[in-house]
Amino acid sequence: MNYEEALNWIHGLYRFGASLGLERVTKLMELLGNPQQKFRTIHVAGTNGKGSTSAFLAKILEAEGYRVGLYTSPYIEAFTNRMAINGKDISEDYLVKLVEEVKGAVEELAASPIGQPTEFEVVTALAFTYFAQAAPDWVVVEVGLGGRLDATNVITPDVTVITNIALDHTETLGDSVAAIAAEKAGIIKPGIPVVTGAQKEEALTVIREVAESKQAPMYTLDVDFAQQVSALTLDGLTFNYSSPQHQLHDLQIKLLGRHQARNASLAIAARELMPIPFNEQAVREGLLQTAWPGRLEIFSRAPLVLVDGAHNPDGVLALRAALEELLQGRKLHLVLGVLGDKAVDEIVGVIVPLATAEVIVTTPNNPRAADPHVLAEIVKKYCHNIPVKVVEAIPDAVAEAVAATKADEALCFSGSLYTISEAREVLKKFYSQNS
Question: I need a surface site. Which of 147, 169, 266, 326 has the fewest CB within 10 A?
Answer without folding.
Answer: 169
